[in-house]
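(Fold this chain)
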Amino acid sequence: MSMTAKRAIRVLCVDDSALIRKLVTEIVNNEDDMEMVATAPDPLVARELIKQHNPDVLTLDVEMPRMDGLDFLGKLMRLRPMPVIMLSSLTERGSDITLQALELGAVDFVTKPKLDLSRGLVESGHEIVEKIRGAARATLRRPTSRPAGAQPLVAPRVSSEKLFIVGASTGGTEAIREFLEPMPADAPAILITQHMPGGFTASFAKRMDSLCRIQVKEAEHGERVLPGRAYIAPGGEQHLRLARSGANYVVALEAGPPVNRHRPSVDVLFESAAKHAGRNAIGILMTGMGKDGAQGLLQMREAGAATLAQDEASCVVFGMPREAIAIGAAQAVVPIDDMSRQALALLSGPESRALRI
């Protein structure tokens, strides 16, 4: 590497499986811009290696021996915060633990294949290295929670035609939580596309439902879109679209190729909202890598919708919002802890749409 080249991203892999440590090491060391500086079979060994090697990114197995992975992650985020990517199993327990890890401050996760581990992990190599690159650039955010007894926001009396349309990726699970928790029970309907593999969105929706005053569920094809409910796109195989059935909004789940390398895609949801809701929708683009959602948000704005993008300071990864802002898709740029208030304020009438970047 030349003297002018950027320093390689230093990675430490923590996993009790020797095979996984070997495969992840090969995947990382095949890239010119990163290197595996050490591997550890458990968190206790990892603790010493972190002190020794000072890695930029840690990959961490969800279920670990000698010390629970969540306990280790919690201690790490308090004492030596650093970007962490979880290696998660595609099970209900694995998805629940992964969501808890994201709440504790993990940046992202990669799912381990159920079958043919070696081949499956190698095929996930591109995803692993892209997420390591994203994590190396990520802004670490301390976990937040609303004070006990905090009063919900108040939604102005508006037509049931009003909708919030939300897209997010890396860092989005916590951003979505911060957006949904303050929402009153009578908030307009909310449709959400969060980049997430199949098997995780059901657990995510259940977790959000337990924390929020509105009802939160995984979206189902053909169901009516109602106020006071949030509908999360099922991960993996289908895109979420807004559709019409007579006078009602309905959910449409459609198979199709990935858009911007994602299925479900934020652009697909936003474009359907531009077509079927127009100025009755408010588009919100949150933290995430890449550009998914930027063009769709622009279409929403051109159709008369109000549009918001999360600000850089509160994003884990300021990729998708940056792309939207750059093309003029965002009417305003808002910190995540004020996003729900700003979105509700936009329901009040045209005068509230004077917001600008």
